[in-house]
Design brief:
The structure is a homodimer of 330-residue chains. Chain A has helices at residues 5-12, 16-24, 31-44, 50-57, 75-88, 102-114, 129-138, 161-174, 191-206, 221-234, 245-257, 291-306, and strands spanning 62-67, 92-97, 119-122, 142-145, 156-159, 180-184, 212-215, 239-242, 267-272, 285-288, 315-318, 321-323. Chain A is of the alpha/beta class and 330 residues long. Chain A binds a DNA duplex (16 and 16 nucleotides) through residues 4-6, 14-18, 20-21, 23-24, 26-30, 33, 48-58.
DNA sequence: ATGAAAGCGCTAACAA
DNA sequence: TTGTTAGCGCTTTCAT
């Protein structure tokens, strides 16, 4: 398995250029010659060395993927979407976690350049000018994934979180709820959560209703449930929108602890459609974010950029959907 | 950012060999010369081209990671463990999903060779001789991760699933349960599940108890719950061990549907310690599998192999633990 | 349709 | 301590 293109050429009785041609299908080779080359390749179990190929051609067929944390809920599904499409187009992915730290993120762009990746798929909580500058410097084609660029400087694939939250409000209003509260963690920590909150507020105001917030110290079940329970015991809304599924489970259990029946006394609507929404009782209605599609579409987008195919828009908005389940069916 | 080592040499007024030396700290360079080189590097924003370096040195500082599916529950955490340790040792990872298909798995080993990875971290459901042969052919250092090699041919990092199941049985017996049933999907599909079942059987027999099985058509909540419910309504055990967390949630809800109180009427013990064990009521006692550690330890193992450090054993067994929660506290 | 030869950007002997 | 030089295994002109 460590024969070189030169060995193949010798065995086939041709020049390495010809071997290269049949390997890459880059020029017409006589059928018979081609067969000899193919035979030699099989006989030697030859495999082209991608590193040498990368150096010579300046294309590595690998793309860098920078995520805050693969192990975060359903981020893996997004990565899976990337990898599936990458494979279709014969790309490999180099995966790195940034933990959302700006210096790590910019460092990573640099090391990805060193690796000579052909392009970059980038995810972060909130896009900063520093990110954009680094991309610029590295001169790498970049596509943002589940990351918003309000100024549209970088191609991106996203859903419209604000609109999704507005849809949630309208959905609950259509069910007769007027008193809808929004459950989220602290503000300014999670751009996604903030966008949803903004949508909630706007929809409420447009409907002439008073927004009302239940803020938890952290976006995490154990601490959230106690916090929600105490706030709920003071003032009971008719419906709750949680900024993600885990908070929604906390809201559900907090409600049940207070003997509120879900959905009869209070309806609950979540965000993200992770698996846990179907492991609760009742199951949770949730806004589904197309995690796999984020990755798949972004990667496809990048292949277009790299293959200079025609691009229509630089900002792809993926559709979101309300998955209705028992928590809002009354 | 596309200056070459030659440019740096010219600007610093030295030879490229010297630049290479300061870059890799591979020989002593006079302080003053070094400074000139460093200045030139900074001035040119020079970054070494890892592909050229890889070709010349035959080391790419990247390792291939082959998993069945990153998006499978908590597989991402394992990958995260790999990546964290990889970064400590300046490695990058190329991630690929095999979907557990043998041909894809062996193909991937080949393309990983093409990419000239320095080593391989490999995960699969059940290790076959074909896998071993492929590793042999590719001549790549391989470490198995959360994958058992009963014959010890390939270095591996694992827990002792059989022992874990035995521990589970003994734990429940110590709580006064004699009638313990094992909940799992069909046999022969999941090597992990089978090993656990074997441990369960052995522990029961050693205690002179009759093993009893609840088999579900699929390892998936929605279909499992109905199946478990109907089997439970015929014969009620005092405790249930489920071969994974999702089945345990199904067992929990099935029990509750039949008005069995958990843990008073029936105790439930799960496997894997995924997040959902703490989103149920009551929370589930579970055997924790150190997902992150699998990855971290396996990667560290590989770095030892690559750096020819001393290795003591080729089969690392990681400790498992019983996380006791309310579902077995009575 | 095929071959010869010059790189790609680096590392690693070997000299000096 | 530093420089010269020969590759690493390919792709890609340019000839033929």
């Amino acid at each position: 398995m460590s024969a070189t293109i030169y060995d193949v050429a010798r065995v086939a009785g041709v020049s390495m250029a010809t071997v290269s041609r049949v390997l890459n299908d880059t020029a017409v080779v006589k059928e018979e010659t081609k067969k000899r080359v193919l035979d030699a390749i099989a006989q030697l179990s030859y495999r082209p060395n991608a590193v040498a190929r990368g150096l010579a051609s300046k294309k590595t067929k690998t793309i860098g993927v920078i995520v805050p944390d693969v192990s975060a809920t359903y981020m893996a599904e997004l990565v899976r979407g990337i990898e599936d499409v990458a494979r279709m187009y014969q790309y490999h992915i180099i995966l790195s976690n940034s933990d959302g730290q700006l210096t790590r993120e910019t460092d990573l762009v640099g090391t990805m350049w060193e690796k000579q990746v052909d392009g970059l798929l980038f995810m972060t909580m909130e896009l900063r000018q520093e990110h954009v500058d680094t991309f610029e410097q590295a001169q790498l084609p970049v596509v943002l994934c589940r990351t918003d660029d309000p100024e549209g400087r970088i191609p991106s694939v996203n859903i419209d979180n604000k609109q999704a939250a507005k849809d949630a409000v309208n959905f609950l209003m259509a069910k007769g709820s007027g008193k809808i509260a929004f459950v989220s963690g602290p503000e300014g920590v999670n751009a996604l959560s903030d966008a949803r909150k903004a949508g909630y507020i706007q929809a409420m105001q447009e409907a002439g209703l008073e927004p009302s917030y239940i803020m938890t110290p952290r976006e995490e079940y154990a601490t959230a449930i106690a916090s929600i329970r105490s706030q709920l015991s003071v003032d009971r809304p008719q419906a709750l929108i949680a900024s993600n599924d885990e908070l929604a489970v906390a809201a559900l259990h907090a409600s049940q602890d207070l003997q509120f029946r879900v959905p009869n006394d209070v309806m609950i609507l979540a965000f993200d459609n992770t698996k846990i929404t179907q492991l609760t009782r009742p199951h949770l209605t949730t806004i589904s974010q197309p995690m796999y599609d984020y990755g798949a579409v972004a990667m496809r987008f990048l292949t277009k950029l790299l293959g200079d195919e025609q691009i229509s828009t630089y900002t792809v908005i993926l559709p979101h959907q309300i998955e209705e389940r028992a928590s809002t069916m009354k």
